[in-house]
Design goal:
alpha/beta; 372 residues; GerAC_N; Spore_GerAC-like; GMP Synthetase, Chain A, domain 3; germination; four-stranded mixed beta sheet; single chain; membrane; nine-stranded mixed beta sheet; Spore_GerAC-like_C
């Protein structure tokens, strides 16, 4: 019996000797963590990378500090290597929350500079992406907005606007496959800094890997409803009573409680493409100074007014997407999946703007707060 125990002990001792240790360990005390990155294109065509390094305090009551560094190179990997020469410690990107892309950069092909980001397993794929109207690095130089560090402020801004449906819901992980898909395009959050204030500007539209235009925040709300992907909250304010636009009595705010989208694609003669999008919206009214919502006639008239108004706006948004060649609804992907013989005949960059959209939005007011 004791011989068996000796053999077992010796066997485990030998196994332990050959088990590798933590050869790839990365001590936190030796690491400098990036919290937010910004990329711009210089006038010379080079890439400028700006990074915020979070410096954690040694005392319990002290606040974290931001250190801002920047470097310029021909590729994003080269700029990272140059940055490492300027920063003490090992720079690591696995805590990066946000990538900001300057407008000068996204007008060109954005994939080459994102390629090493996807290839490196240390980079987080759930990082948020946003386009900046202007130079992205200038925003990071602010370091703080009010009492918030700039990285936390932008991260929270993107999350809040996404929940309010004013920003599209995207990340590095969700954008990558779409960016390489010839049958679908995407939108990214769009922000601006003016007079030391950072504000949401809506969405940046992309065709393939190039920036092609923008939607404002309220157009983005309607786009997300049309796409069947509204955020936690979607609120719209419209003038529903004819008269002065300066009179608040003529306006009503509605909050989308739930929405349902019907989507249909048909192929006609000569391979013409028709797309039918119908959205049924149940809405609550948090603001309508004229009241009278208990009156069925008044409520039905408001339903009809809002339905026609939002349908017209939806048509305008789709027209804007087509002019920007942004196939955000994935019409091309639908063709590839269900009508491959038609897809093969199409040159999508030229044929997508010719797609005939038939859009209808039906609004029904189902509540008015505690004043029902």
């Amino acid at each position: 019996m004791w011989k068996k125990r000796v053999i077992v002990v010796l066997t485990w001792a030998i196994v332990i000797l050959f088990i590798p240790g933590c050869w790839d360990q990365d001590f936190l005390k030796d690491t400098r963590l990036s919290y937010i990155l910004a990329f711009d294109r210089t006038d010379e065509g080079k890439i400028k990378q700006t990074v915020i390094i979070r410096e954690m305090p040694t005392q319990e009551q002290a606040q974290p500090l931001n250190e801002v560094y920047s470097a310029t190179g021909y590729t994003s990997r080269q700029t990272s290597d140059i940055l490492r020469r300027k920063i003490t410690g090992n720079v690591r990107y696995y805590k990066t929350r946000v990538f900001l892309l300057g407008k000068s950069l996204v007008k060109n092909n954005i994939y080459p500079f994102l390629d090493p980001v996807y290839r490196d397993p240390e980079n987080p794929v759930n990082t948020q992406l946003a386009v900046v109207d202007g130079e992205a690095g200038k925003i990071l130089e602010k370091k703080k907005i009010g009492n918030r560090l700039i990285g936390e402020f932008i991260n929270k801004l993107l999350q809040n606007q996404e929940e309010l449906s004013m920003f599209p819901k995207e990340s590095m992980q969700s954008v990558y496959p779409v960016m390489l898909d010839p049958g679908q395009d995407f939108l990214l959050p769009y922000i601006r800094m003016a007079n030391d204030e950072i504000t949401a500007q809506g969405s940046a539209m992309f065709h393939g890997q190039h920036f092609t235009g923008t939607l404002d925040p309220y157009q983005t709300i309607l786009y997300r409803i049309l796409a069947g992907d509204p955020g936690k909250t979607a609120r719209l304010t419209r003038q529903v009573i004819p008269g002065s636009s300066e009179d608040p009595l003529n306006f009503m705010s509605v909050e989308i409680q739930n929405s349902k989208r019907d989507f249909k694609l048909t192929i006609g003669n000569n391979d013409d493409i028709d797309v039918f999008i119908r959205c049924m919206i149940n809405a609550e009214v948090p603001e309508f100074p004229r009241n009278k919502l208990h009156n069925t006639t008044v409520r039905n008239k408001l339903n009809d007014t809002l339905s026609k108004m939002l349908t017209k706006e939806a048509e305008s948004i789709i027209n804007k997407l087509q002019k920007a060649q942004c196939d955000a609804f994935g019409i091309g992907r639908e063709l590839m999946a269900h009508h491959p013989e038609v897809w093969q005949k199409k040159k999508w960059s030229e044929d997508y703007p010719k797609v005939r959209f038939h859009t209808k939005i039906q609004v029904e007011i189902t509540g008015s707060g505690i004043l029902n």
